[in-house]
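Re: the 111-residue chain
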Amino acid sequence: MTQTDLGETPVAPEPDGWEWAVVEVFGHRRHAGRTREEERFGAKLLRIDIPSKGDAATNGWETIYYGGSSIFSFSLSDEETCKRINKPYEPPARLSLPALAVSEANEDDDY
C-alpha cells in the first residue's frame, strides 16, 4: 500500500473482512470495534462487534447492527485505539493517598 498525502498509511481490512473503526450513529451514539458490511433481512447493514470492557478475549463481544442511513460518521482506526476507547472507567480513588497508620496518627495528636 502507498502512503496518502498526509503521510498516513491506509488501514487494510483483515483477511476475514473485518475493519477496526469508530462509528457514530445519528450523531448521538459512538461505538468503537471491528466492523464489516453484512446482508440481513434483504438489506445491507453495518455490523459492529464491540469488545466488552475493552478485552474481548476475557469478556466477549457485543454485536450491534445499523442500517446505512443511520450512520453519521465512520472513521477507520486500529485495534489498540478501539480497545482503549472501550476500556472501563477507573475511578480517581485509585490515586488517593494511603490511610495513615494508627501509630502515625497518634503522634500528631498533641492536645
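Residues 26-87 form one domain.
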